[in-house]
UniProtKB/TrEMBL annotation:
It comes from Symbiodinium necroappetens. It comes from the Eukaryota. Its EC number is 3.2.1.2. Pfam families: Glyco_hydro_14. It is an enzyme of class 3 (hydrolase). InterPro entries: GH, Glyco_hydro_14, Glyco_hydro_14_CS, Glyco_hydro_14B_pln. PANTHER family: BETA-AMYLASE 1, CHLOROPLASTIC, BETA-AMYLASE 3, CHLOROPLASTIC. The lineage of its organism: Eukaryota, Sar, Alveolata, Dinophyceae, Suessiales. Keywords: Carbohydrate metabolism, Glycosidase, Hydrolase, Polysaccharide degradation, Signal. It catalyses: Hydrolysis of (1->4)-alpha-D-glucosidic linkages in polysaccharides so as to remove successive maltose units from the non-reducing ends of the chains. This is Beta-amylase. One of its GO terms (molecular function) is beta-amylase activity.
Amino acid sequence: MKRLLATLLLAAWADAVEVFVMLGLDAVTQSGDLKDPESLRAQLQQLKSGSADGIMADVWWGATEPTAKSYRFDGYKQLVDMCKSIGLKVQLVTSFHQCGGNVGDTCDIPLPAFVTSQRDIWYKDQHGHEDREYISLFADNVTVEGRTPLQMYSDWFNALSSNFAADLGSVIEEIQVGMGPAGELRYPAYQLSQWKFCGVGAFQCYDANALNSLARAAKSAGHADWSSPPSDAGDYNSHPGDAAFFQNGYQSDFGRFFLKWYGDALLQHGAEVLQRAKQAFGSSGVRLAGKVAGIHWWYKSDHHAAELTSGYYNANGIDAYDSISAIFEAAGAGVDFTCMEMADSEQSADCASGPEELVKQVMAATASHDIALGGENALPRFDDTAYSKIESYKSGMQVFTYLRLGNDLLNGANWNRFQSFVSKMHSTLSLIV
Ligand SMILES: *[C@@H]1O[C@H](CO)[C@@H](O)[C@H](O)[C@H]1NC(C)=O
C-alpha cells in the first residue's frame, strides 16, 4: 500500500505531444508530381492506423517555380487532399534549398534555373569553392532578373498561401520556413562534398557581397584592417587544435568582431525571411516554425568551433540560441530542433560532442522567449534507446517530427516500437520515477 501510494504521488499530468512523420525527400518529383500515389496512400493509411498525427513534406522550390513567377503546386495539392481524406495533418517545409547533397539525400532537385544560371550569388569558401544548395544570404538584396531573393521568397510564400488558403490552419497545421541549407537557418559550413565528421567546418563569407559587407562593418568599427575573414581558422576537416583561431583567436577583439558580424548577418537573414512568411501566412491560423541545426560536435569546448562556422555565435559568453529565439519570437514562429534522439554516451569523446546539453540550452532559450519547440531526430533510428531519449524531452516539446517514412519503419519490430513510441508521446500521464 505504501509503495502504491508513492507511485501515485509521483504521477503527473503531462501535455500530449503530437507525432508527425517526414515523407521521403522524393515524394514529389522535380516535375511537381506525386511519385507513387498508390503506395504513398497505403503508407499514409498505415501511419494513421498507428495513431500518427500527420506528415511533414518538403515543398521544393525547384519543383514548384519552374519559370519565374509561374507556380505549380499540383502534386502537393494531391498530397494534402490525400492526407485530409485519411485524417492526417500536414507540416509543409518551404524548401528554398536544393534536394541532394545532404546526409541521407536520395534526390536531385536543383534550385530553379532562373537562379542557378546566375553568378556571384552563392556562398563561397576561402578556396573560392561555391555551394549552390541555397542562395547566399549576402545576396538577399541583390536584384536578379528583376527581383531580389527576398522578393522571390515573398512571392512564393504568397503563391503557396493563396493556393492552399482552404487548408491552412486546418489540414496544414504548420509551415516550416526554410532559411538555408537543409532548410535550416545556418551557413553551409559542413557540406558533405568537402567535410566529414567531426571537422570544424569552414566560414562561408568569401563571395563579393559578403566581403563588401565585412569591409563596411570593419570601417564603421573604426578598424579598416579587419576587412578579411580570419586566415587561421583551418579548413573543413581541421580539428580545433590545428587552427589558431579556435585556440584563442576567437577571443581576440578581431575574433569577437568577426564572429558577431557573421552571426548577426545570419540572424538578420532569418528575421527578414520570417517577416515575409508572417506577412503571407499570418492571418491564416497556420503555425509558423523554422529549423535550427543541431551542431553537437565541439559543443563541449569553449570555442564551439563547428557552431561558429555555421553562424551560431555560441561562445565568449554569448548565447546563440537565445539570439535566434528572439528573432523567431518577433515573427511569432516556433523553433524546430533536431538531434533529440542522441545521447552523449553514444558519441565519440574525441569530438567534444554534447547533444544532450545542446538540446537543453535550446529548450531553455525557447522557453524563456515563450515560443514553441518542435523536435526531430537527426539520423534514422528504430531502437528503444533512441525513443526513450526523445521521450525524456517530452515536457519541453509541443510536437515531434520523426525521420523518416519508409518500408523499414513500417515493418515488423520497427513498426511495433514506433507505435509504442507514439502512444507514449500521446499519453497525458507521466510517471516520474
Ligand atoms: C537588406 O536590406 C535590409 C533593409 O533594407 C537590411 O536590413 C539588410 O541588412 C540587408 N541585407 C543584406 C544582406 O545586405
